[in-house]
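Retry 2 of 3 after timeout on previous attempt. Resubmitting structure tokens to design endpoint.
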């Protein structure tokens, strides 16, 4: 029922459409289903001309009587009636259908009179201000006079026993044909929103699980060691407490004395290895004797090749 209530709110706030006018036309024709004049205008099968003055007036009125749908469309265009006021006439028409006998008949303009009377009562009962009956007579383009409108209004009030109340359940029941497409659209929209919400919640849950797994991984991961391993005055930082085998063997097997002795024994002419492993490239050289000068091996003259 909540979907029908939402659909009714949407329907009452929407503008008047041709679908609404067509629906009201069908509802009005169902009030007098056995009226032989319901289809005469559309089929252009008019009865023979009458002989009496009263019958002549009815015949002339029938000659210029528009179809019921055209009549309702003209009233809607002239009055700019609200959607609520227009659709409430369906409730009054259905009440008349339950009150009147099934074999009830009328004149060719009876269905026009029924709809106009229901529309006038709906406008007067549900609105603070509404057109006067003389204005309604103008809206019919002279089809009905002000006296005719006064008479049909009193007759309708007597048939309805002056009970013009319309509840929400009455509107939902009588306008179900117009409410059903709106209800289906609302249900489909809510299902789509629900699926989208569930998908977003699942994505958030997956993201949270990934974040938790990353936190667990960071907590269980062995931190990088910051304790340096010294080798030849060079600090080597180990990753995950794993040193290269070569560095470990060098650092463990070689002492500072061994390094010093090895550096002394390996020194040659023009080359030297310091403790910091800085290697000076040896320069090829030879001793050149000089007749004018005396020299010793400690201070040789060096000539580059």
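Retry 2 succeeded. Sequence:
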């Amino acid at each position: 029922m909540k979907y029908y209530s939402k659909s009714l709110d949407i329907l009452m706030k929407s503008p008047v459409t041709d679908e609404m006018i067509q629906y009201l036309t069908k509802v009005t024709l169902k009030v007098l289903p056995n009226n032989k004049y319901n289809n005469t205008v559309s089929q252009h099968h008019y009865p023979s001309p009458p002989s009496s003055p009263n019958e002549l007036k009815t015949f002339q009125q029938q000659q210029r009587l528009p179809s019921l749908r055209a009549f309702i469309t003209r009233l809607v265009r002239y009055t700019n009636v609200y959607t609520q006021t227009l659709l409430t006439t369906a409730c009054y028409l259905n009440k008349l259908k339950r009150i009147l006998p099934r074999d009830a008949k009328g004149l060719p303009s009876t269905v026009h009179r029924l709809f106009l009377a229901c529309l006038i009562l709906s406008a007067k009962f549900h609105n603070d201000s509404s057109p006067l009956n003389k204005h309604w007579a103008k809206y019919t383009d002279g089809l009905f006079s002000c006296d005719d409108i006064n008479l049909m209004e009193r007759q309708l009030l007597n048939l309805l026993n002056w009970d013009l109340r319309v509840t929400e359940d009455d509107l939902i029941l009588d306008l179900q044909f117009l409410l059903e497409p709106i209800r289906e659209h609302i249900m489909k929209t809510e299902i789509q929103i629900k699926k989208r919400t569930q998908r977003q919640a699942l994505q958030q849950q997956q993201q949270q699980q990934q974040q938790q797994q990353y936190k667990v991984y960071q907590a269980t991961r062995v931190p990088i060691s910051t304790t340096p391993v010294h080798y030849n005055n060079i600090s080597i930082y180990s990753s995950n407490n794993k040193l290269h085998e070569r560095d470990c063997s060098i650092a463990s097997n070689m002492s500072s004395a061994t390094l010093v002795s090895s550096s002394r024994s390996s020194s040659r002419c023009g080359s030297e290895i310091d403790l910091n492993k800085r290697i000076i490239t040896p320069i090829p050289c030879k001793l050149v004797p000089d007749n004018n000068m005396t020299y010793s091996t400690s201070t040789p003259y060096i000539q580059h090749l």
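Attempt log closed. Residues 176-220 form the longest helix (45 residues).
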